[in-house]
Amino acid sequence: MKTISIVGDAGTLPAAPLAGHAHYRALDGVRGAAILLVFIYHISGTADHFRMSWVGRVAVLGASCGWMGVDLFFVLSGFLITGILIGTVNDPRYFRNFYIRRILRIFPLFYSVFLLLAVLTPVLQLQWRPGHLAYLFYCQNIALIFNYKLVDVAPAAYIGPFWSLAVEEQYYLLWPLLVWLIRDQRKIMKLCLALITFSILLRVVLTRLLPNQIALYLIYWELPTHWDGLLLGSWLTLAMSRWPVKELWRKTRWLAVLAVAVLLGVGVYARTFDFRMPAMETVGFVAIPVVFSSLILRCFVPGSLECRIFSGRFLRFMGRYSYGIYVYQVLFWPLMILGLHWLADHLHSRTAGDFVYLLLWFWGTVAIAVLSYKFIESPFLRMKERLAPTRHVVSGLAAGAELHQAEGVLS
User: Fold this and answer.
1) Kind of pairing, strands 152-153 and 157-158?
2) Fewer CB within 10 Å, N or C, the chain?
């Protein structure tokens, strides 16, 4: 395959693949798997009621692992974003184009949600707090440490999941500058590993010095203690420019095996895979993105099982609308809980109520996300090529990542 040099002798990346390349379709499916994991985790919010029926018990069986879907989002975002940054680092409009495209991708839906909540405030009697202003500046993950009640706008709206959007945006403020300053891919790879090591040590220190509950949420919500996935995804992009995919897999598969063993060990030790455990938030937080990075790498192995699975239509469909699904799925959670009880009462069966509730919740969220994509997100996405054209993108991975942005899978 033809290659184009990116940064001197720092390595080469394959020339841009065709738009329909199976490997990039598989990444759509990976994002779809991530949003399904997050959805499964949020089922646990109604677990107490669900456990009263067999449908509920089955539904919440894997909920304790579903939060890992956010880390899969982080790994994939780091992977794709770094591909774009490395591919455009010599472009004189490097910062301008990157941030215009980020704004057009993320801001319209995010701020539309708060506009909707503002309009509904007198109807739902929403009770805003001064701290909610932090959401408008993507600082909600920091504000939540000081006031946990900011996860909702009582009594009807729940915006707690937005913390991860803040983490990603904060990474997007920091990482492009570091890539632009360093440029050398080998040095950036070393920086990724150094920052991950720093994060592990910081998490250990925080769990020792702070009260358990404060330390666990501080570690989970903040960028310096939860950037392992973003950094490992970034490292993977650069590693794939240095080694052929199959060779890189041979070099690193032992890490994947070790990471799986660590996660199983943590789960057995803590008797749960919930993130609110010191063992999970120290070593588990680095093991999880190692597993997910290996999963993404396997998607680039021709004919691999992972590539075939994640290229499936359903997962790719979910990946395409994952941003909207993530934002909307529990936006009106308090009202949804009332609906769950109403269904159980009127169907005279908890099992039937749970089943209908899950169907309505899942497909209703998907339908809203599809409509949102068409009428809110797409008009802004179409502006990308006019305001920040991609003709300066030269690397294969960067071109593939830009393709993902155009299709709206990058949140």
Assistant:
1) antiparallel
2) N
For residue 268, how many other CB atoms are within 10 A of its CB?
9
Alpha-helix runs per DSSP H in 243-284: 245-270, 278-279
Q: Quick check: 163 and 185 in contact, CB under 8 A?
A: no
| Token pair for 43 | 């089922």
Q: What angle do CA 129, 135, 139 make, to 5 degrees?
A: 115
Crossing angle of helices 185-209 and 228-242, in 10° steps, is: 160
Tokens in use for 265? 């060990």
In this structure, what are the phi and psi dihedrals at residue 10, rounded to the nearest 5 degrees?
Answer: -80, 0
Amino acid at 22: A
Question: Amino acid letter at 213?
Answer: Q
Name the residue ranges covered by the structural domains of the chain.
Answer: 15-407
**C-alpha span between 336 and 162 (Å, rounded):** 18
Question: What are 37-72's pLDDT values in tens digits?
Answer: 999 888 766 555 555 655 555 555 567 788 899 999
Q: What is the DSSP string of 338-387?
A: HHHHHHHHHTT-HHHHHHHHHHHHHHHHHHHHHHHIIIIIHHHHTTHHHH
CB–CB of 47/60 below 8 Å?
Answer: yes
CA 310 to each of CA 31, 178, 316: distance values in angstroms, whole numbers, following the listed order? 9, 32, 7
Strand partners, 12: 5
